[in-house]
Amino acid sequence: MKKLALLSMLAAPLAFAQDWMPTAFDHTEVSPGIYLLTGADSELPVGATSLLVGDEYVVLIDDSFAPLGPALLEKIEELAGRPADFIINTHAHGDHTGSNQFQAENGAIIVAHDNLRSRMENDPEQNTGPGALPIITFSDQMTFHINGIEAYVFHIETAHTDGDAAILFREANVIVAGDLLFRGMFPFIDYDSGGSVSGYKAGMQQLIDMSNDDTEFMPGHGPVASRADVQQDLDMLIDAEKRVKALLNKGMSEEDIVAANPLADYHDDYNWGFITTERMTRTLIRSLTTD
Predict the structure, then answer these.
(1) Which of 11, 55, 85, 279 sits in a 20 to 30 Å window from 237, CA-based?
(2) Whole-model pTM above 0.85?
């Protein structure tokens, strides 16, 4: 039910989507001063929002849909006593950048990858006015030295999109993965925004390689995950690609491959309303025939 609701919200006009949105946020403290914020009065996970709270600065990672800006600010002020000083956008989708303008009007400085700003700048639905766009951008990596820890922000190329960023809180051993991690779901790989299956797999492997068994991953969608969870999702994607490639090598057409349902073994665990088993199959076919 949750996954079907998420499809409705992502695909529907904003007025309808608001029917699915929470009006407040709950929080879970993943590590001291690091919080995962989730909808308090909705079964729907509306995109991950992470918060770093300290005496020096308050850093928000992603800021959900535009209508959730005031509720998100209320939760930030509850936990931190003041609005966010910085916002790091992990990619240029509206469920992660939608309240940029509102949070900027309340004092936040927005940071993101160069490609994210370019995509938002050229999209009138996202370039909604002063403050909507990041004002600090980076090409490869940057580090925030705040609250006694390092927040290492780095670009992952052509993965979920072409402007993805992930964040490692070094001392806390926490990685904010953005939409490089759809925990326990088929991932959305946005080819129209510069993403690719090969880049997505490489990005997931990069996150695994910089972690250990105690690392906690904060995903773009889904619950807090372990290194083993991330490895399980990557193994699924690698095997799914092999299954589709085997049928392509037999000369089967796209429609014949879809009908053969090579990802059937993953359907019960990974299928969801937005990226169904069929859509994941078609994404892999596109990857294997165009990349």
Answers:
(1) 11
(2) yes
